[in-house]
Q: What sequence folds into this?
């Protein structure tokens, strides 16, 4: 296989890994503890299926599930994340954040393992989880860092959208006031509602 062809397959595999990593993080926010585990496992299995297509490898679902179980071990500390979800008030939020990072990190690591194995000509028949476990663990740590960064970026983007939305709403009510559609009192009330109840009332 030519270097260019290998490079193309690697790029396609990277795209599949990235997409499934994002989807796994989304599944990690599912508020039902058992549901998120099944969702992540299904996403990871689909990732392996798509990577098999890229590398022209016969996909074997049973073997795929076995490899996922062997590499992720006890579920990459899922029990700890699941337990956090049951804490009243903060459980579902804090647990979801933790699970999202763990899910994304695990999916990334799993994808990297299969990419490495397939890039070197491997198939399901010669896949040795014990030999690749160390590589998985290394990529899992990197994956968690990447997932955490993605999550942080998303939060910043959401905040930016929120600020921009508030600015747009204020522009709209300013125009409504100028057009005589709002009284000063109505304008002030709407403005406080948009930017926060602690905002001082306009003179």
A:
């Amino acid at each position: 296989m030519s270097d260019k062809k290998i490079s193309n397959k690697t790029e396609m595999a990277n795209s599949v890994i990235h997409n499934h990593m994002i989807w796994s993080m989304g599944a990690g926010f599912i508020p039902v503890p058992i549901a998120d585990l099944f969702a992540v496992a299904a996403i990871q299995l689909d990732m392996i299926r798509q990577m098999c297509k890229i590398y022209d490898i016969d996909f074997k679902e049973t073997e795929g599930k076995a490899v996922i179980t062997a590499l992720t071990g006890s579920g990459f500390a899922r029990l700890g994340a699941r337990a956090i979800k049951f804490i009243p008030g903060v459980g579902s939020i804090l647990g979801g954040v933790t699970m999202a990072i763990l899910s994304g990190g695990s999916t990334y690591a799993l994808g990297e393992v299969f990419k490495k194995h397939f890039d070197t000509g491997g198939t399901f028949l010669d896949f040795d989880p014990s030999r690749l476990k160390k590589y998985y663990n290394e990529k899992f740590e990197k994956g968690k860092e990447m997932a955490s960064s993605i999550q942080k970026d998303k939060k910043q983007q959401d905040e930016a959208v929120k600020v921009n939305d508030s600015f747009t709403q204020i522009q709209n009510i300013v125009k409504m006031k100028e057009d005589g559609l709002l009284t000063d009192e109505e304008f002030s009330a709407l403005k406080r509602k948009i930017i926060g109840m602690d905002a001082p009332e306009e003179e």
Q: What stands out?
A: The first helix runs from residue 3 to 27. The helical segments are 3-27, 33-54, 61-72, 78-84, 91-119, 129-178, 184-195.
